[in-house]
């Protein structure tokens, strides 16, 4: 197993899909470039709201998953998150 630096964006999404994060392989630069659209969403909307939307779209939690007064993403941003997770082929880890 190769140990790579913990980029904040990588560790946020790794929490939703730890199997791929550990066994996915690849080089750090390639992974960082591939995750740029996700990091851009974090920068624009905040990582908490984006990761909540990812978890919702993966079926890990029900929408809305954030407690008041925290608001989830609007429909357009929510759809953009869906596009990004589809492009990145992010899937929920199988139950163990």
What would your notes on this structure say?
This protein has 96 residues and is mainly α. It has one domain. Helix content is 56%, strand content 0%. The protein is built from six helices and no strands. Helix 4 packs across helix 5 and helix 5 crosses helix 6. The N terminus is likely disordered. Keywords: Lyase.
Query: Could you give the order of the helices and strands?
Result: HHHHHH
Secondary structure: number of strands: 0
In DSSP terms (H or I, runs of 4 or more residues), the helix count works out at 6
* Fraction of residues in β-strands: under 5%
Question: Termini, distance in Å?
Answer: 21 Å
How confident overall, as mean pLDDT? 80
Structural classification: mainly alpha
Overall 3D form:
globular
Percent helix, as a range, is 55-70%
What is the multimeric organization of the chains shown? single chain
Radius of gyration: 13 Å
In short:
This protein has 96 residues and is mainly α. The protein has six helices and no strands. The chain has one domain.
What structural keywords apply?
single chain; 96 residues; mainly alpha; globular; disordered N terminus
Strand and helix layout:
Blueprint: H1 8-14, H2 18-23, H3 28-34, H4 36-45, H5 47-57, H6 75-87
Keywords: Lyase
GO molecular function, one term: lyase activity
Protein name: Dihydrodipicolinate synthase/N-acetylneuraminate lyase
């Amino acid at each position: 197993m190769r140990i790579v630096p913990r980029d904040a964006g990588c560790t946020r999404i790794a929490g939703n899909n730890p199997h791929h994060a550990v066994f996915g392989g690849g080089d750090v630069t390639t992974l960082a470039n591939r995750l740029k659209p996700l990091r851009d969403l974090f920068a624009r909307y905040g990582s908490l709201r984006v990761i909540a939307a990812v978890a919702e779209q993966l079926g890990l939690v029900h929408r809305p998953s954030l407690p008041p007064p925290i608001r989830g993403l609007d429909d357009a941003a929510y759809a953009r998150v869906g596009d990004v997770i589809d492009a990145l082929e992010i899937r929920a880890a199988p139950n163990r």
